[in-house]
Design a protein that fits this description.
Blueprint: H1 3-7, H2 19-22, E1 29-30, H3 35-44, E2 49-53, E3 59-64, H4 65-72, H5 75-79, H6 81-86, H7 89-93, H8 95-98, H9 104-107, E4 117-119, H10 124-134, E5 138-142, E6 148-153, H11 154-165
Parallel strand pairs: 1-2, 4-5
Antiparallel strand pairs: 2-3, 5-6
Helix pairs in contact: 3-4
Length: 168
């Protein structure tokens, strides 16, 4: 039983859900993939973010969707919104074409945060706390060796909590 459970006078349920129980398979990208592929993977699969893996399938970083967008939009336009306003619509749409030669590694932050990861045996509370702490709607689930085994989206976590612990 967990310390929190003992302190609250509760017993842990034998059927308590763990990260592995709600993890799903998601497509990943690598630092060598084009940014355009990363955005497409996220869009086509309706993911709230992306998991970037290294050559051993270990999470290199977990990027919320807003961070993926930040990678795609040139820094000059992010820093000066007036610059984006002066472009006509046709020119403004060309920034996407300019991304075709840039990789995830080219535009990834130099000071990247520790990836949002949990072990497969983590509790749903641990997953929720990590998502809240790191402001990430996506968490990578890893095995004992740190290899990706799945992912949990915010939507999946909230749905699982509501169904599992919901009382009418």
């Amino acid at each position: 039983m967990s310390t929190a459970g003992r302190l609250a006078g509760r017993t842990e349920r034998a059927d308590a859900m763990q990260a592995r129980d709600i993890a799903i398979n998601v497509p990943t990208v690598t630092v060598d993939d084009p940014i355009t592929k990363a955005v497409r993977v996220m869009a086509v699969n309706r993911l709230p973010g992306l998991i970037v893996v290294d050559d051993r399938a270990r999470p290199w970083t977990v990027l919320p969707g807003t961070q993926v967008l930040r990678l795609a939009v040139p820094q000059s336009y992010q820093e000066d919104p007036a610059l984006a306003r002066v472009l006509d619509e046709g020119s403004a749409d060309l920034f996407w074409v300019e991304l075709s030669d840039r990789t995830v590694g080219d535009v990834a932050p130099h000071q990247r945060a520790k990836p949002a990861t949990v072990r497969a045996d983590a509790t749903l509370l641990e997953v929720a706390a990590l998502m809240a702490r790191q402001h990430s709607p996506l968490v990578a689930v890893v095995d004992e060796a740190g290899v990706l085994v799945g992912a949990i989206t915010l939507d999946r976590l909230i749905t699982s909590l509501a169904v599992y612990t919901g009382e009418d």
